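Protein entry
_____________
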Amino acid sequence: MRRFRLALIATTLLLGSLAAALPLGAGVRAQEASTNADTRVAELYDRLAATESASEARGIALLIQRRWLESGSPTADLLMERARQAMRGRDPALAIELIDRILVIEPGWAEAWNRRAIAFTMLDDPVAAIADIYRVVSLEPRHFAAWAGLGNLLMRAGDERGALESFERALAIHPHLPRIDAIVAKLSREVDGVDL
């Protein structure tokens, strides 16, 4: 019995010291990688807001959108790819089911909420879509596609002022969003009676 206790104590001490030593280095590296990735994304948003070229803006926006699709979890990424396939195949109900599973794994992944909002829109459920978009922009306030999507949903619901504010937020982040300038000009005339 005494040998068992000594072996158990030695094993516990060994495992405890290994556990204490390994995660620290790994955690620091992971935190540095996350900080570097956040810095690169912030730089992309800065470039997007500053560029005067629509074609350059398209390229920068694509880079940002690729970052949105990176959850950090291989399982969540695989489920997202399947959800995207379901949406391309016009099966939004399956996409929602898959994204619900993703959100159990990665509840802070803004793009998962955004894709589910798109699927709800495909199912003609604007209330659920709007709720998910509000979640997206609370997690990633610079998500220009979510702001534009919210603008479209609010415009369809007859909330011109809310739609205008959403589109303006999208344009503040991505000044070269296709067709949004014309929509903002039209809504401004309707809401404020101002011709831009």
Remarks:
- Confidence is low (pLDDT under 50) at residues 4-31.
- The radius of gyration is 23 Å.
